[in-house]
């Protein structure tokens, strides 16, 4: 076989190993984002790696050729007297070693640089005794790099860089306008709700809701039948960005409009609550059905419940409250649970058109349903009964939230009113159309939401 063929084998095997490394990194990232244990690599990646290694070794051994023995240094085992006398014979006018002075002196020799290099390589431990070349003073023609302006001594440990992000007034204004347009176009209900809030906290609320919209859009782009992992990396990008903005990471703060808005208008927002919005989306990657109604309730608390708490926290700072009352957190979690359950009913048909069924598996088992039966409408009566059960669960949670009304401070009730009004409307609308999730009319939004919020805020209710 020709050497060219061996070169091709070596190159192809190297490329194959790089592909294996990329595939392994993709697989590891997917498991990390979905919080699954990393036990081993797929069998195809392992097989490809082994074959590529064998091919690389085979090709490289033929390209390199036979092994060549390295000639030993003739002066390695010789004494100073032998090396010095031999050196004087080879160059009598070169470097002369004085045994009494234990140093070398220089004499004119046309090959002194070559022989000096030979001695330095043969006896590096005594090179400091060569007087003409052992001067430690810098040469006038050699620059002293230690005295250059801006020179820094190496640090013994890694220091955390500054998190300060210089934001101009124009950049902050552009980021704020971007958040307003994002919420207005993608989350009309919350856009109207923010307009009923105090003006001093609206910028923070628009930034937080725009952040939530960004997360929702990322998840909507992830398909369970697609190998594209860009959406999952985008969720991790936002998790890293939140860590950088609120001081939990040394990563740089991204120059992204929503990230800039969070820096400018929501510097005191709760990082655990923002992180909860991301983690909840990461756990539901792949659009797998909820295992139980309890998992669906937990998802509602981690998303809508966290969002309500962020709103209440912003209103509490405006009202000069030191901390968020526990009753507000409980009421927010109850409302978040109710919204998570009833919103699954409203989003049933749009998700079904994408081939996705998220109904809880335990309820489907009780009603003798499977995702295939739900998708093909083989038993619509059973699906309607399942939806009726979900409506009962949502009604129980919103009733539990309203029982906490006396314990919730009046200024913070504005944070609970929007979600409460939306849940009440969705429950009434679903019951009105016989709990049929295949009915398009369940997608309608409340046309009087703004007026309801104005009345509730005036009366101090939610």
From TrEMBL:
Keyword Membrane attributed: yes
GO molecular-function term, one example from the UniProt record: inorganic cation transmembrane transporter activity
SUPFAM superfamilies, alphabetized: Terpenoid synthases (SSF48576)
Keywords for the protein's UniProt record, in alphabetical order: Endoplasmic reticulum, Membrane, Mitochondrion, Mitochondrion inner membrane, Signal, Transmembrane, Transmembrane helix
InterPro entries: Isoprenoid_synthase_dom_sf (IPR008949), MMgT (IPR018937), Squ/phyt_synthse (IPR002060)
Residues in the signal sequence: 1-23
Protein name per the record: Squalene/phytoene synthase
